[in-house]
Amino acid sequence: MIKKNIPNTLTLGNLFCGCLALVQAFNGNLVWAAYFVGISLVLDFFDGFAARALKVSSPIGKDLDSLADMVTFGVVPGVVMFKMLSFTLAPLYLTDIFTGTEAKTDSLIPYLGFIITVFSCIRLAKFNNDTRQSDSFIGLPTPANTMVICSFPLIAQAQIESQGLNLLEYKDLLPVLSWFLVGITVVFSILLVAEIPLFALKFKNFSWLTNKLVYSFLAVTAVLVALLKFVAIPLVIVLYILVSIVNNIFLKNKV
């Protein structure tokens, strides 16, 4: 009984951390929201890994995973994008950006962030009913999309702390930043449901021959993270998409 519930416990841990991330995001502390999402990502990886290793996969576990993912990797990135857009449209609140500052604006533009939540819901529903996605993905996985969205507060805060930037000096550029975030919202929402085959970072065994693509990708990821830190996160996701396209189309190696 204990062995059977280990993966579900990890899944519920993912959900719990997603709820904590939501609280932090609503309070304007997007940095801590990103940290809690990071913990959720680890738990989300190991719940599936544990289920396969212990051979205790079940329909309930699959449903729990999708429900937890909808909160952590669906609602949370939508709220984070909503808050980031609110910050860019309320420059007087930028002195303590992403660390607990309340940004208020009358603009409707921040609500576009919830497009991410809508398309994440569609993505998860498609995943549960698409037999082609048992060993690979069709469209960008919601955790990868959330990593990109939540990396922006971490990148911004790291730049502020390392270079002592005063964002009020750059407030004239904030409208450009807001439209950049809108563009990210639209592009990555489309990628969530796009018919693009992407390789899965799953291990059925640990042999080099069957996992050489995953091992190589993880090695490059580790190097990028070591060199670029948080800036590496969106670059890694873009690289993930490009490598999948090369693997599936140019190398004719269907996943």
3D architecture notes:
The chain has 255 residues and is mostly helical. 69% of the residues lie in helices and 2% in strands. It has helices at 2-26, 30-54, 59-88, 115-129, 142-163, 174-193, 208-228, 232-250, and strands at residues 136-138, 197-199. It has a two-stranded antiparallel sheet with strand order 1-2. The protein is globular, with a radius of gyration of 19 Å.
Structural class: mainly alpha
Q: If you compute it from the alpha carbons, what radius of gyration comes out, rounded to the nearest whole angstrom?
A: 19 Å
What proportion of the residues form beta strands (DSSP E)? under 5%
Strand order of the largest sheet: 1-2
Helix content: 55-70%
* Main beta-sheet strand count, sense and barrel state: 2 strands, antiparallel
Shape: globular
Terminal CA distance reads: 34 Å
- Please provide the count of β strands: 2
Low-confidence residue ranges: none
What's the helix count? 8
Series of H and E elements: HHHHEHHEHH
Q: Averaged pLDDT, please?
A: 84
Quick summary:
This protein has 255 residues and is mainly α.
Topology:
Layout: H1 2-26, H2 30-54, H3 59-88, H4 115-129, E1 136-138, H5 142-163, H6 174-193, E2 197-199, H7 208-228, H8 232-250
Antiparallel strand pairs: 1-2
Helix pairs in contact: 1-2, 1-3, 2-3, 2-5, 3-4, 3-5, 3-6, 4-6, 7-8
Which tags fit this structure?
255 residues, mainly alpha, two-stranded antiparallel ribbon, 8 helices, globular
